[in-house]
Structure formats: structure tokens, C-alpha cells
Design brief:
By secondary structure, the chain is of the alpha+beta class. Among the domains are: 13-76, MutS, DNA mismatch repair protein, domain I (3-Layer(aba) Sandwich); 245-404, Dna Ligase, domain 1. It is built from 17 helices and 13 strands. Strands 5-6-1-7-8 form a five-stranded mixed sheet. Helix 7 (148-157) links the parallel strand 7 and strand 8 (163-166).
């Protein structure tokens, strides 16, 4: 049976969500941007009016405002983006359980088995497009094809709010004239190498000699030729690998030089890590600390714990110990990342009791566990920023700004 694959791409996702939350943004050129004060001053997303001024993702806010002085800049609200992404996924799930996310705003759907219930791929795509707009206030561009690569090209072909079908009958007319750089897995460097070989379009790539490309690019060359010819048989991957690590990092609004400041930063970063571990019923056995100095040089150190844990306090103390071993007092820190690995199920965790262990340590672990459960419960009911370490409220290096996002 011929497969029917959809690729659904929410148009200008961050900017569109902000416009749903504040409808006045629909009438002005607007971009979602990182804070210039926090040294994240780049464009993360922009609406259609901003695109007309030539504003592109990842350019600096300063550059964007030179192109469009009246540009309205909006800080990102990541919790809202996650919420809207889940709302859209609920709509997808009405039509198939074979869904493969590709970032927060894109997904592949295999609707082959759904055609008897909902019609052909174009009919299903139209239903999804209509429901997303009515339910979420967002527009979505959808590619309909017989494989994932062409479905992705279809969603990119017409934007915004459009559906494009790329079938076995028309794919040469639609796909082959497209620049080779538009095909998935053709990065900037690969595109440049292909151009030097005279391969400018996807059609040129499809007509290439497989052995010549394999000699030049290895397995990638053979794969790209097959993809260009429509020979992509990769399934929509519905199951994901269990997480192997969890990390949380931040670039501070000013360089940190004091140990006390670094401890506050570590405490803040580990709050989220501990919550994610407990939410996933996981523990970690290794803690890693990574820091960047004012010259952006990276340093890293890790430590294996005596016992697996998902205690926020235990992870923070291990990370701060790594800081004391890794860093000289007074030396500036621009960015810090705390990570945990060696994840295992907390449900199967067993702990061997020892007659020689200090009873106060056992009592402290129990208190920390109760504290974590209470904090998780409060945040679950009232939001992630409803309770936080007091030091965050008075810091001047950007942590409160990160929490508000």
C-alpha cells in the first residue's frame, strides 16, 4: 500500500503564538527576540509583516531595527510555546497515533491507515489545517506525499497557511527545479560542495552518478541521491529513545565573579533538573558542571555520586563542589550549565542501609525529599514561577528574567 505522509509546520510559530496572546501584533512588524541586556539579542522568530523588511531569523536585533525602525520586539515566552505545541499535537492525534515531532513546531504524520476513516491525504491535511486555526488561532502549512523528505519539501513549498501535495505523478515538476539547499540534510557546507560540482538543483542531484557522490561524501552522498529520486523509505518514528541526560544552562547578564553568586546560579539551574527527574520517575548517578569564561572558552568537570538521586539539593551540592574544584575565585564566568547523566528508573531504585551511616544524613535526605515533593506540587498547581529560591528575586545577573520567560 502506498504510504501517505504529512509534514505539518506551524507558520512563524513563536511570533504566531505571541499574536494569539496579543492580537494587536497582527497589525505591526513584530519579532520575538532575545534580550539585548542579557546578551541574547538575536531574532528568534518574526511575523509576515517583519519578513517584508528582509528581517531573518538569527540576525541581531540591532540589524533588524536598522531594516525596520518601527519593529516591535517581544521577549520569548517558552512555557506558552510548549502549551500551544501540545494543543496542536492533540489535534494531530485525532487522525493518527504515528506522529514524529521535528522540533517544537513541526511534525511528520503517517496517516496511511487513517484514509478509510477521514479520506485521502489532502482531505486529512485540510481538516487538520482548519482545526488548528479554529482551536489554536495558528496557521499551519502541510506537505502531503509518499515519503518524509518530499512531505517536508511540500510544507516548505507554499507558506503560510497552505497545503501542497507532492505525488509520484508530479514530484519531478515540483521538486526538481528547487535549489538543492532546500532538501533536508543538505547543510550549508554540503550545498557549497555540491555547487562546486555543478549540482544546483534537486533535479541535478537526482541525475548524479551515485558512485561519484559516494566517493565524495561517503554514505551521505548515496542517501542524498536516493532522497532526491523519491526513494526515501524511512518510517515515521513514533517511539523516542529514553533520555540519557538532562541539562540546564544560562548566559548571565553580567559575568559572575563571586562564589556566592555562582552558588545561587547553580541552585537555580538544578531546580529545573530535579523537577524533570522526578516528573520522569528518574534518578541520576553523575553530575556535570560546564562553564564558559569571558573569552567563551569552555571548561567542564563531572562527578559520580555515591548513590543515585533526584534530590535538587544533592545535585546542587555536587555541582557546587565541582565549581570549587574547577574554578579559581574571582575569575569571571559568562555562562554555566549543570547536567546530570547515568539516568535510571526511580521506581526500581533500591538502597542498601548501613549501620555506620550518620543518621542525620538519612534524615536530611528524607527532609529534602519531602521538600521536593511539596515544591513540585505547588508548581504543578500554580505554575513554575509560583515558588523559587529567595536569592533569585534579588539577583542582578538575569535569572529572574529567565524564570519569567
Amino acid at each position: 500500500m502506498e504510504r501517505t505522509i504529512l509534514h505539518c509546520d506551524c507558520n512563524s510559530f513563536f511570533a504566531s503564538v505571541e499574536t494569539v496572546l496579543e492580537p494587536s501584533y497582527a497589525h505591526v512588524p513584530m519579532a520575538v527576540c532575545g534580550s539585548e541586556e542579557d546578551r541574547h539579542g538575536i531574532v528568534l522568530a518574526k511575523n509576515e509583516l517583519a519578513k517584508r523588511y528582509g528581517i531573518v531569523t538569527a540576525e541581531t536585533v540591532h540589524s533588524a531595527k536598522r531594516k525596520c525602525p518601527q519593529l516591535v520586539t517581544v521577549p520569548p515566552h517558552y512555557n506558552e510555546y510548549v502549551r500551544f505545541s501540545r494543543m496542536v499535537s492533540v489535534i494531530y492525534a485525532r487522525y493518527t497515533d504515528m506522529i514524529e515531532p521535528f522540533g517544537i513546531d513541526e511534525s511528520w504524520l503517517d496517516v496511511t491507515a487513517s484514509r478509510k476513516l477521514f479520506g485521502d491525504g489532502m482531505a486529512i491535511a485540510e481538516r487538520i489545517r482548519t482545526e488548528v486555526k479554529a482551536t489554536c488561532g495558528l496557521t499551519v502549512s502541510i506537505g502531503v506525499s509518499f515519503n518524509k523528505i518530499f512531505a517536508k519539501l511540500g510544507s516548505d513549498y507554499k507558506k503560510p497557511d497552505a497545503i501542497t501535495e507532492i505525488s509520484r505523478d508530479n514530484f519531478e515538476q515540483i521538486v526538481y527545479p528547487l535549489p538543492v539547499g532546500q532538501m533536508l540534510f543538505v547543510g550549508r557546507k554540503t550545498e557549497e560542495m555540491l555547487r562546486r560540482m555543478g549540482v544546483l538543483t534537486i533535479g541535478d542531484l537526482a541525475r548524479c552518478d551515485e558512485e561519484a557522490l559516494t566517493r565524495r561524501f561517503g554514505k551521505l552522498g548515496d542517501m542524498l541521491v536516493r532522497y532526491a529520486r523519491g526513494e526515501d523509505n524511512a518510517p515515521v518514528q513514533t517511539a523516542t529513545e529514553p533520555a540519557k541526560s538532562i541539562s540546564n544552562g544560562y548566559t548571565f547578564s553580567r559575568n559572575l565573579t563571586k562564589a556566592e553568586e555562582c552558588r545561587h546560579a547553580i541552585d537555580f539551574l538544578t531546580e529545573e533538573i530535579g523537577a524533570k527527574l522526578r516528573m520522569g520517575h528518574l534518578t541520576c548517578s553523575t553530575v556535570t558542571l560546564k562553564v564558559k569564561d569571558e573569552l567563551l572558552k569552555t571548561y567542564q568537570k563531572q562527578h559520580k555520586l555515591q548513590r543515585p538521586t533526584n534530590s535538587t539539593r544533592a545535585i546542587a551540592e555536587a555541582a557546587f563542589s565541582l565549581y570549587q574544584l574547577l574554578w579559581e575565585p574571582g575569575r569571571p564566568i559568562r555562562m554555566m550549565t549543570v547536567g546530570v547523566s547515568g539516568l535510571s528508573s526511580a521506581d526500581t531504585l533500591g538502597e542498601q542501609m548501613s549501620f555506620f551511616e550518620d543518621p542525620t544524613l538519612v534524615e536530611r535526605r528524607q527532609r529534602d525529599g519531602k521538600r521536593d515533593v511539596a515544591v513540585d506540587s505547588i508548581r504543578g498547581r500554580f505554575g513554575s514561577d509560583s515558588i523559587m529560591p529567595a536569592a533569585i528575586l534579588t539577583n542582578d545577573f538575569g535569572l529572574l528574567n529567565k524564570k519569567k520567560k
